[in-house]
Design brief:
The structure is a single chain. By secondary structure, the protein is α/β, with parallel strands linked by helices. It has two domains: 113 residues, Rossmann fold; 116 residues, Rossmann fold. The protein is 38% helix and 17% strand. It is built from ten helices and eight strands. Helix 8 packs across helix 9.
């Protein structure tokens, strides 16, 4: 894919060698946040020391946050104009990162939830599919600007056996075809539980490869990491309107 240069968006990723094998497989799919073929523009990936499933999802680490700030400042000094992350659970760090840096920061696709809520109106709910529901706390939601009046139906992929190998058997391979089916089944479960659902927001940055299948199956809008990063990319000029040659 031809890229639009120069590179202006930096993505803070988990430390090399500390990513479960199943997630490494998911990273090969176009649409995944750490697959550079997911974007029609250049991005810069930066592996953050100490960032892993334990220090981001399960027990957010202030040391990792400080490493993110240090690396982000370095990238900004080298021309990066916006910072994001490869895990939606980094929403917990949104305020600190944004206040520490001089460029736009968008840590999580969850930041789209308040906007989607305004699009749908107060009587519709939003289905949030997350990598691990038990790890998604009220603090993450509030950090993303999600207030108590926003109706959410949160579903965790950890209830799906193949996906859950990421947590229970991190050294094992996963079957990506089975995971694709599990994602669709989870989305269908959401609408069967709640007929007021008007849209999906996918927290996990490994889920966008399956967004189009959800749209086709359920005929509902799906917001994910890609809809967010392309929104920001247009704002800083790395994606141009079609009328500009």
């Amino acid at each position: 894919m031809d890229k639009i240069d120069p590179c202006k968006i930096g993505i803070l990723c988990w430390e090399e060698g500390h990513v479960p094998k199943g997630l490494v497989q998911l990273e090969t799919l176009p649409g995944n946040s750490t697959n550079t073929d997911s974007y029609p523009f250049s991005v810069r990936l930066s592996r953050i020391k100490g960032a892993n499933i334990h220090t981001v999802l399960e027990n957010p680490s202030q040391d990792v946050l400080e490493n993110m700030i240090i690396e982000s400042r370095k990238m900004i000094s080298e021309g990066i104009e916006a910072i994001t992350t490869s895990c939606g659970f980094n929403a917990i760090f949104q305020e600190k990162l944004a206040s520490s840096l001089e460029v736009p920061v968008f840590t999580s696709s969850l930041l789209q939830v308040p906007l989607v809520h305004k699009m749908l109106g107060p009587d519709r709910s939003i289905a949030v599919i997350t990598a691990k529901k038990s790890a998604l706390k009220i603090e993450h939601l509030r950090a993303a600007g999600i207030t108590v009046d926003i109706k959410l139906n949160i579903l965790g992929m950890e209830n799906s056996p193949e996906w859950n190998k990421i947590f229970t058997a991190p050294d094992d391979d996963v079957d990506l075809n089975i995971i694709a089916g599990e994602v669709i089944s989870t989305a269908k479960e959401a609408v069967s539980q709640d007929k007021s659902i008007g849209a999906f927001v996918l927290e996990c940055t490994d889920l966008p490869p399956f967004s189009e299948a959800i749209r086709e199956e359920l005929h509902l809008p799906v917001f994910d990491f890609l809809t967010l990063i392309e929104f920001v990319a247009r704002s800083i000029g790395v994606m141009k309107p079609s009328y500009i040659q």
